[in-house]
Hints:
Elements: H1 2-24, H2 27-34, H3 36-59, H4 64-88
Amino acid sequence: MAGYMSKGIQTTLLLQVLWFGMFFTNILGLVGSYNEYLQDLIWLTIPLLGLLIGIIGLSKQVSKSISIINIGCGVIILLSWIAISGIDKM
């Protein structure tokens, strides 16, 4: 079980790093101009998975440092989504 959990933690961290790459190169904006539902799905699914897997990893005592980084990245992404959504509504 620990092997699968460790792979899951590493995979979600990689997904979050890819998310940051897509955000800063405006690929998420391009996806949003094509399909807004898909953009919101990417915006929310990746950080929520990171938070969920990170919390499970901490509770199972598997890769503590990567789990904490996962949780931190997930929180940063969700907070930026809240901030940008608030700016859009102004």
